[in-house]
Amino acid sequence: MLHLKKLDPFDGISEALIEEINRTGVIRRYPKNAPAMGSDDTLKHFYIVLTGRIKVYQYNPQNNREQTLYLLGHADMFDVLTVLDGSYHEVMTTAIDDSEVLELPIGKVREWVDTNPAFNRAFFPYMARQMRQIEELATDLSLYDTSTRLMKLILKNLDIKNPLSRLGLLHKLPHEELASMIGTVRHVVNRHLQQLKKEGILHIERKQLAVHDVNKLLKKVENEY
């Protein structure tokens, strides 16, 4: 039995629901670079990321190309679509870091969606954010070049109050993973990053990215619209 006292992002859920989560939940661990929860798993279970990062992506074996749909981190959920429609969701997952997730029976999660307002206050806004993220990805792939897509990705993960800190989920992410997130290849990302460094916008050291000049970055992105 688990011993969780709270569960992000579900602030305000009752002690009774926490107890039920502790009774029915299981911690799953995935080592770095290993496959994580799969489409078959999500027909039976729902997952909340506790630690680490997990990539959710599509893969085309004919050209060996990947397209990242989501990069999940702490308190992210998977898979909200299957909870709602019960259908098979054909995606692949890989642990970017050593990761831990909370595995919950999907039937219980559907019950909480139907009956628990506190659960819903986190579940439905999260689902909406994921839908917006996919819409934004489709728009970016259709309308913007790779340089603009990369800059928008950096801005999305930037803490404006502390731009020299880690870039959220992008922290020490290999360049091929950045490429997968914006629909291109590693050498294109490398070229764009070096150009941003040359312009004094980025500081790059040992795969660690930091934004040196936020205003320059914002202006450069605005000029692409």
Explain what this protein looks like in three dimensions.
The longest helix is centred in the middle third of the chain and has 27 residues, at 117-143. 29% of the residues are buried. β3 and β4 form a beta hairpin. The protein has 9 helices and 9 strands. The strands form 3 sheets. Strands 1-7-2-5 form a 4-stranded antiparallel β-sheet. The protein is an alpha+beta fold and 225 residues long. The radius of gyration is 19 Å and the shape is globular. α6 (146-156) crosses α7. It has helices spanning 15-24, 39-42, 80-85, 106-115, 117-143, 146-156, 175-182, 186-198, 214-222; strands at residues 26-30, 45-51, 54-60, 65-72, 77-78, 92-95, 99-105, 202-205, 208-211.
Summarize the structure in short.
The chain is α+β, with helices and mostly antiparallel strands and 225 residues long. Helix content is 44%, strand content 21%. A hairpin with a 4-residue loop joins strand 3 and strand 4 (65-72).
